[in-house]
């Protein structure tokens, strides 16, 4: 036996030469019909072959009958489940020597399948071609092998050859074929094969099969046709957990998180208990949708189903709570976990960072280091936004050094986060240098650089980089468009904003809720409220941010009544208002002079909607009372606040004092501001302007003198205008432009023309002494081009 196996193993890489090399050896076996069945279940099918040879006696005996077909078939059946290529070659050699191959098509088909399961696709195809008759089972085995190797086009070619041979595919053929269509994103081919399946069933040549249906659903979903996938799913007479899982997974992959959660609830209502795979798909959906209550129910299912020790499920729950803004729940879950891995730490660190809880983020990172856990690229990518938000450039550079020392510099996530960090810290040149040296740049890296230019309001470089992005054939995504739309919003670049809107429509991005929200905001802030409302009406899907944006838009345009109507429309859609909703509503009431309605909304926040007022709401109420001229009521409101007022609340009151020329209260409020924030230049200027409204020029000079004494710098006034596609920016007292003299003369000429036409300036709101306007030199100091 030993010499036989040794020789076979030497020849195992060339099984087709086995017969030639072994013809001099006799076959010493009996039929052995009573072989123990349990040998077919052993982990090593070679035991069965060894058992046969032990019963045959010494090699000098004359040849007897070959082993019977059933016994050999049992060997192959036991060997077909993921055994090694070496073992498959050994069995192949045995079958060749025994004379079963190549003539026995049943054993040949089983050997093809055995090679496929042993990752021997080339050998499987070799055996397949030698078979005199090729069964559908043999074809299916090759199709499976091609698919397992990612050879999707070849899979479809072999499927076509199967049809060409006149064979009828079965329910094991089509799952392979549909997966190949998914791999190629070939929706049209998938549709045609689906129609063929339907025609076979209509002819009763193919029975309905849930595995085929799942493959069809998965194919449509992966090819982006979730509607057709849903249609197939709804037509199924019986749906098991696998079918539900495939449909939910496809819905999640298409970005329809709300629909995925609805499907999950339907599945539960039909009495099916989710497995870890379904839960792993649903938990992120709760996070994306902010469905924290449903997420808590899913958390209960995880506990009830005994998956509390499943780190993957627990880490997903932490991520879900963080995405819903419930970082306290995430932290409690984290602390309750008996075992934590690096993913657990990284997820919570990233969650704190995403929710702008930067102190907690840094504290947790310090704890992680104290625990001796080394951060990975995901940890660093989650930590860097905290350094970006806090503008902790030195810490960011330390992390950058850590990245280089540990070989993370090629990681695209890290590269993207570092580019973003440098850009947000105002180091745009360093961001550019890092961007240029990154070996691989995916869309996230490009987006970080585009966002960096956008945040620094550099329209020229933003659009230049966008054109470069298209030249290298990287497709922009919704994040790219959001950055550019926000730039157009901040610079009032309506023309470019409309072009981006058109691009979004052509690329299908206008159906993305976040893009629609940004377009509404851009049009509204650019004075085109009607275009913003048109975008709003055309949106198929809306969220709370959508309604908040529209409410804020109407408020900005002084139309408080329409803002309230949109709020009621929001309530009719069963959408729950949040803190931002009431900030927008109160601001709309303030700009619209709707004092009574504002009080009504403020009082209903906690009583009806469970929203606890914070500083933003207090600031809106002070602004509402102040704009309406009720300064004493505004001051009383501030004194009765349950917390000390912050600078926004006091600043709103100081602005109202300037508007209504209440210098006494302005001085009192200003003293409180300067005690709390002595370095805030803007409020010194606001107090100075308040004095100017009542003509107290000595106090104006005194306050402005304090600004100089303290070494504070007032940010110069800035404006811009777009001419022939180029944005021209203007800064006060900036004479660096080479055409400064020419522009000053042109401005003087315009002012003289206005005076000749009889124009008399209204100086009642002037912040400078009337004598200032008698000097022609003032002209060149007021408007300068950069």
UniProtKB/TrEMBL annotation:
InterPro entries referenced in this protein's UniProt entry, alphabetically: E_motif (IPR046848), PPR_At4g14850-like_plant (IPR046960), PPR_rpt (IPR002885), TPR-like_helical_dom_sf (IPR011990)
GO MF annotations, alphabetized: RNA binding
Spans of repeat PPR: 135-169, 209-239, 240-274, 310-340, 341-375, 411-445, 512-542, 543-577
GO terms of biological process kind: RNA modification
Domain of life: Eukaryota
Residues of the signal peptide: none
Keyword terms, alphabetized: Repeat
PROSITE patterns: PPR (PS51375)
Listed PANTHER family: PENTATRICOPEPTIDE REPEAT-CONTAINING PROTEIN (PTHR47926), REPEAT-LIKE SUPERFAMILY PROTEIN, PUTATIVE-RELATED (PTHR47926:SF394)
Protein family according to the UniProt entry: Belongs to the PPR family. PCMP-E subfamily.
Protein name: DYW domain-containing protein
């Amino acid at each position: 036996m030993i010499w036989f196996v040794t020789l076979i193993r030497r020849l195992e890489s060339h099984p087709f030469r086995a017969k030639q090399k072994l013809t001099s050896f006799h076959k010493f076996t009996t039929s052995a019909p009573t072989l123990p069945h349990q040998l077919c279940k052993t982990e090593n099918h070679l035991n069965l072959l060894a058992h046969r040879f032990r019963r045959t006696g010494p090699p000098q005996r004359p040849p007897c009958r070959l082993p019977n077909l059933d016994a050999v078939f049992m060997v192959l059946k036991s060997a077909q489940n993921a055994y090694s290529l070496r073992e498959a070659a050994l069995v192949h050699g045995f079958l060749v020597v025994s004379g079963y191959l190549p003539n026995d098509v049943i054993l040949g088909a089983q050997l093809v399948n055995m090679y496929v399961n042993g990752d021997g696709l080339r050998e499987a195809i070799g055996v397949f071609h030698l078979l005199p008759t090729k069964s559908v089972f043999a074809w299916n085995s090759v199709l499976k092998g091609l698919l397992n190797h990612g050879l999707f086009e070849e899979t479809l070619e072999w499927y076509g050859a199967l049809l060409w041979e006149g064979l009828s595919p079965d329910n094991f053929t089509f799952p392979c074929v549909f997966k190949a269509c998914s791999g190629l994103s070939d929706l049209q081919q998938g549709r045609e094969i689906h129609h063929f399946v339907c025609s076979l069933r209509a002819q009763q040549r193919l029975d309905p099969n849930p595995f085929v249906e799942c493959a069809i659903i998965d194919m449509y979903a992966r090819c982006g046709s979730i509607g057709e996938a849903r249609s197939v799913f709804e037509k199924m007479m019986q749906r098991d957990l696998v079918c539900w899982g495939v449909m939910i997974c496809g819905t999640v992959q298409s970005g329809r998180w709300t629909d995925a959660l609805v499907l999950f609830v339907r599945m539960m209502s039909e009495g099916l208990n989710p497995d870890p795979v379904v839960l792993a798909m649903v938990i992120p959906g709760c996070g994306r949708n902010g469905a924290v209550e449903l997420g808590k129910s899913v958390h209960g299912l995880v506990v009830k189903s005994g998956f509390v020790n499943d780190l993957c499920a627990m880490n997903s729950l932490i991520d879900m709570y963080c995405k819903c803004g419930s970082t306290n729940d995430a932290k409690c879950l984290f602390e309750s976990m008996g075992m934590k891995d690096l993913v657990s730490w990284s997820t919570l660190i990233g969650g704190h960072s995403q929710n702008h809880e930067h102190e907690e983020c840094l504290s947790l990172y310090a704890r992680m280091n104290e625990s001796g856990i080394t951060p990975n690229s995901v940890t660093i990518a989650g930590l860097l936004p905290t350094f970006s938000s806090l503008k902790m450039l030195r810490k960011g550079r330390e992390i950058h050094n850590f990245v280089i020392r540990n070989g993370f510099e090629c990681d695209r996530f890290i590269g993207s986060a570092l580019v973003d960090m440098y850009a947000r810290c105002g180091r745009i040149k360093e961001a550019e240098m890092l961007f240029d040296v990154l070996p691989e740049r995916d869309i996230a890296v490009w987006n970080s650089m585009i966002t960096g230019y956008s945040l620094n309001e550099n329209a020229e470089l933003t659009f230049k980089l966008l054109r470069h992005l298209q030249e290298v054939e990287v497709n922009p995504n919704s994040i790219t468009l959001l950055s550019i739309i926000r730039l157009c919003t901040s610079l009032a670049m309506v023309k470019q904003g409309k072009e981006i809107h058109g691009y979004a429509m052509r690329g299908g991005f206008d159906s993305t809720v976040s893009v629609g929200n940004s377009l509404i905001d851009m049009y509204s802030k650019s004075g085109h409220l009607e275009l913003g409302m048109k975008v709003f009406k055309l949106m198929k899907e809306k969220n709370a941010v959508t309604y908040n944006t529209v409410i804020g838009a109407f408020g900005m345009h002084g139309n408080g009544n329409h803002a309230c109507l949109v709020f009621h429309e929001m309530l009719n859609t069963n959408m729950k208002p949040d803190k931002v909703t009431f900030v927008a509503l109160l601001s709309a009431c303030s700009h619209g002079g709707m004092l009574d309605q504002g009080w009504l909304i403020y009082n209903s926040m906690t009583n009806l909607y469970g929203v606890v007022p914070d500083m933003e709401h207090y600031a809106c109420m002070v602004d509402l009372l102040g704009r309406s001229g009720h300064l004493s009521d505004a001051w009383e409101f501030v004194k009765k606040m349950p917390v000390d007022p912050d600078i926004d609340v006091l600043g709103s009151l100081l602005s109202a004092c300037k508007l209504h020329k209440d210098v006494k209260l302005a001085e009192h409020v200003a003293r409180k501001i300067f005690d709390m924030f002595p370095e805030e230049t803007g409020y010194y200027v606001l107090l100075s302007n308040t004095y100017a409204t009542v003509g107290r020029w000595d106090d104006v000079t005194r306050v402005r003198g304090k600004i100089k004494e303290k070494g504070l710098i007032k940010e110069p006034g800035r404006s811009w205008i777009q001419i022939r596609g180029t944005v021209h920016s203007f800064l006060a007292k900036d004479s660096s432009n080479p055409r400064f003299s020419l522009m000053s003369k042109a401005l003087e000429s315009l002012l003289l023309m206005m005076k000749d036409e009889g124009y008399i300036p209204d100086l009642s709101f002037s912040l400078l002494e009337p004598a200032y306007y008698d000097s022609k030199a003032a002209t060149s100091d007021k408007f300068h081009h950069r």
